Amino acid sequence: MKALILVDIQNDFLPGGALAVPEGDQIIPILNQLQKKFDLVVATKDWHPTNHGSFASNHPGRKPGEVVDLNGLQQILWQDHCVQNTRGSEFAPSLDASKIARTFFKGTDPKIDSYSTFFDNAQRKSTGMENFLKGKGVKEVYIAGLATDYCVKYSALDAIRLGFDVTVIIDACRGVNLKPDDSDKALEEMKQAGVRIVKVKDLSKI
Ligand code: VGL
Ligand code: ZN
Fold first, then answer.
1. Which of 113, 156, 172, 174 keeps 20 to 30 A from 196, CA to CA?
2. pTM for the predicted model, two decimal places
3. Residue 80: CB within 6 Å of ligand 1?
């Protein structure tokens, strides 16, 4: 059994949003088509309280892009984004959400960030996605969404650790690229860990 994981397709990560991922909107029609190939589709929402420790606004004198220590973990500071129950944290209106069997929420604890769809950044608390997928007999996960160099990367690496067969559909993802080669480096890291990197056209057979 295979599942498609749609990572953080939320207004704030699209052009015009609070933490816009360049070209983030361009993957949405691709994702709408892609979902037709899968019997099981799950999604995540980055879902922060206003006092979240990843927001530069909660660290007086700090700016987005700076790195701080957040309860013992290195944390990049971001603009306020994906605040719970705001328009910015809603799925993009153009995303077909009708096939999403379950949405998992991450980044809810103000004291720790959560890039992966499976765990917080210290890998202590689960989002519930692992049990949900394993309970459905899923062995293969296909990952697409935002952003290649953060949430997609950490989700793929965790999925490998959890024993899934993992494929990232690269043209159905876009990166933040704080440094221009961040996404390329992320892809390399994922490959090293055993993640298969494919393009949508390679999936005609599945
Ligand atoms: C993400 C930065 C901060 C992501 C989430 O979805 O990749 N990036 N929060
Ligand atoms: Zn976030």
1. 113
2. 0.97
3. no
Residue 116 tokens, joined: 């992966």
Is position 136 annotated as part of the catalytic site? no
For residue 173, indicate whether it is catalytic: no
* Residue 158 bridge partners (DSSP): none
106 catalytic? Reply is yes
Question: Candidates 3.20.20.100, 3.40.50.300, 3.10.450.120, 3.40.50.850; correct CATH number of 2-49+82-203?
Answer: 3.40.50.850
List Cα–Cα distances, 52 to 13, 21, 112, in angstroms.
17, 20, 8
From ligand 2's centre to the CA of 204, what distance in Å? 33
Residue indicated by tokens 């440094």: 179
The active-site residue, picked from 12, 25, 106, 113, is 106
- The interaxial angle of helices 153-161 and 182-193, nearest 10 deg, is 10
Strands 100-106 and 140-146, bridge-based pairing: unpaired
How many angstroms separate the CA atoms of 17 and 147, rounded? Answer: 14
Domain boundaries, the chain: 2-49+82-203
Ligand nearest to the CA of residue 110, numbered in listed order: 2
Instruction: Using DSSP bridges, classify how beta strands 67-70 and 40-46 pair: parallel, antiparallel or unpaired.
Output: unpaired
pLDDT digits (tens, 9 = 90+) for 22-57: 999 999 999 999 999 999 999 999 999 999 999 999
Q: Of the residues 151, 153, 158, 173, which is catalytic?
A: 151
